[in-house]
Amino acid sequence: MHGNLIAGEWVNGTAVPNINPSDTSDVIGDFASGTAQDATDAIAAARAAFDTWQFSAPLERHAILSKTAAELMARRDELGALLAREEGKTRAEATAEVGRAAQIFDFFAGEALRLTGEAGASTRPGIEVAVTREPAGVVGLITPWNFPIAIPAWKIAPALAHGNTVVFKPASLVPASAHALVDIIHRAGAPAGVVNLVMGPGRSVGQTMIEGDLDAISFTGSTGTGAMIAMESAKRQRRFQLEMGGKNPMVVLDDADLDTAVRACLDGAYFSTGQRCTASSRLIVTEGIHDRFVAALRDAIAGLNVGHALNDGTQIGPVVDQSQLDSNLEYIAKGEAEGAAREIGGEVLSRETAGFFQRPALFTGCTNDMTIAREEIFGPVAAVIRVRDYDEALRVANDTPFGLTSGICTASLKHASDFRRKSQAGMVTVNLPTAGVDFHTPFGGRKGSSFGPREQGAYAREFYSTVKTAYINAG
Questions:
Q1: What stretch(es) of the chain map to CATH 3.40.605.10?
Q2: What is the pTM assigned to this prediction?
Q3: Is there a catalytic annotation at residue 265?
Q4: Using CB atoms within 10 A as the burial measure, which of 116, 224, 383, 427 is most buried?
């Protein structure tokens, strides 16, 4: 059994099998399902370790993060296969994700040495002022299943770099990737209690963390859970950071290069089986290019190879589990019931192994008030919305409760610049997919997508550290 890591010791629990969504007969392994008491013990261990770790030398933090980065990169093929096997994204995508996690740890190894502060004179004679940053404290991290190594990496790495201790709860669907990552950090020299792993259900482990003695909590997941974390954290005067998804628009204007637009939309809407909060599931297309774009995108979808995540040539892997597949099919039925036309896809596929395979679906004749254009589906389903011109496209793009990312395909510098300025999203792309971000730049959105400081890059310090201002009478 693969146990939880609490206070530097591996702790067993109720064994839960981890099933491969490409082949449900393949059991990846048994992983411990933690309890509320395990979560309580992990928080206590992190609290005890924080007393020392917060004063650890920058070179110690740097060494641990650097060793973690090096092992992730050296084992990226092996760990990529493991990730693909348990989550379902293709081997190529999974291997790239492990490489990205390595880059994240490498970046924050550098951040541990890039100590910044300010020194200056007070308005009062003879008084010096020093502004420094200190760790936030004991940080709870709750992560989703769709990026089971990259998202934990971009939370754990800055937490450690800035001197915090961690209690980490991964999604129950992807324990193997989480366990492998924490094992690497543990063997890289993280002291007992600095990083704690508690796998298990949200109703016990997650709830205990939310109600526990944490100084900060960073969450990526559903809007409903995020709202609950916000309320509980506000009651406890605890800082919190939320990433909660999106319903991201990709605008395609008449002057767009057709091949560029199709590639951007195919990648943004369907790669990673559409299971990305940055997926462009609303394709807002102006009248002059609409029919040519739909025909070209339909042909591109028809040519996609849907299959086992580990097979050579697979472009779209399975949906993560039966529950997600059922949800996708319900949304497809709602789209048809509300009058949208299914151009292609949406059906369940049979392959050599039993798995959760679905052909990517494309709807046309959609309006922005349809369910499939309002709610995050988190699957390979995209809705095309026809509009008259750029002004209508911008209005429709912004007409959403979410605001994570957005994109535009156009040859017009005027429209690209205007969209960059007026799009109500935290991230904007021009002639590129909405999905896919760099590890050293800030990640986050607006409105119902995000709350709190940005993740990734140097901006991560805003959440994982707190500012102290000191006044010194040197006379």
A1: 4-244+449-473
A2: 0.97
A3: no
A4: 383
